[in-house]
């Protein structure tokens, strides 16, 4: 089953002479419970595609389906609610709340929604994150790799339908990056989490179950079971 689909999506920035067609009839299927990497040169439309899938941007034409919901038929307010309730986000810059502990940062989406974490789910997530005795530490007391694992915990804690990770290893050394990528892969394997990651790093893409290649605003190739060599 598809967690999300983009169908013939066209997105243009600006008007007239200055118009840039960032997506030119782009179509992609994000399979449920799998780890998908989106690759392509700078300016090929990766961020625009992911923003469209997440309902963050208005598109010119085409359809964006999240499960059975067509995001293009929703109001701005409905899309905001849907993002809050059904999507998770991980950023290159971690974006943790400095005053909160690791445990409080992870629980934040639930706290804001007035929900309590499912104890078994939380225990499994915390165990997988490998943060050991660091849950009561604040972000400044954690390494970059640990901060990103906290941010991923936060993105997953409310059990979203889909998690978007935009260059999640862009600020990490290769060893910390490998731990983050292994965690993302394990989150699909053992928790059934659907993840979409934007990256330009073939080593990172090799952790994914499938890689989608963009060029000039179009999906030009898809590769299952990628390796770093086959992605290059
Ligand atoms: P990528 O993520 O692959 O680097 P983007 O989706 O950011 O690509 O950009 C695709 C194209 O759209 C590029 O030509 C870029 O310059 C253009 N673009 C992106 N965002 C904007 C914007 N806000 N205004 C104008 N042009 C933009
Ligand atoms: P990791 O591979 O987990 O990212 P590092 O090799 O970067 O870890 O760091 C080793 C240890 O040093 C970590 O357990 C972390 O808690 C600690 N550490 C790293 N950076 C900082 C920092 N800026 N402030 C406090 N402790 C840090």
TrEMBL record:
The keyword Transport applies. It comes from the Bacteria. Residues 4-232 form the ABC transporter domain. Signal peptide: none annotated. One of its GO terms (cellular component) is plasma membrane. Keywords: ATP-binding, Nucleotide-binding, Transport. GO terms for molecular function: ATP binding; ATP hydrolysis activity; transmembrane transporter activity. This is Putative ABC transport system ATP-binding protein. The chain holds residues 32 to 263 of 275 of the full protein.
């Amino acid at each position: 089953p598809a967690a999300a689909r983009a169908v013939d999506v066209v997105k243009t920035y600006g008007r007239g002479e200055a118009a840039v067609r960032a997506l030119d009839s782009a179509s992609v299927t994000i399979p449920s419970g799998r780890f998908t990497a989106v690759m392509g040169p700078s300016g090929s439309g990766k961020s625009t595609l992911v923003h469209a899938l997440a309902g963050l941007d208005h598109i010119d034409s085409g359809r964006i389906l999240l499960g059975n919901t067509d995001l293009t038929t929703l109001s701005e307010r409905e899309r905001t609610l849907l993002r809050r309730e059904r999507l998770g986000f991980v950023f290159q810059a971690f974006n943790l709340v400095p005053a909160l502990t690791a445990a409080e940062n992870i629980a934040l989406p639930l706290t804001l929604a007035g929900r309590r974490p499912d104890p078994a789910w939380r225990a499994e997530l915390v165990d997988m994150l490998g943060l050991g005795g660091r849950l009561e530490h604040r972000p400044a007391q954690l390494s970059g790799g640990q901060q990103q694992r906290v941010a991923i915990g936060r993105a997953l804690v409310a059990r979203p339908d889909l998690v978007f990770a935009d260059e999640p290893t862009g600020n990490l050394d290769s060893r910390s990056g490998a731990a983050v990528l292994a965690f993302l892969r394990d989150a699909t394997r053992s928790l059934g989490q659907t993840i979409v990651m934007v990256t330009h790093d073939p080593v990172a893409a090799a952790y994914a179950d499938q890689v989608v290649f963009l060029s000039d605003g179009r999906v030009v190739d898809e590769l299952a079971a990628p390796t770093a060599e086959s992605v290059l």
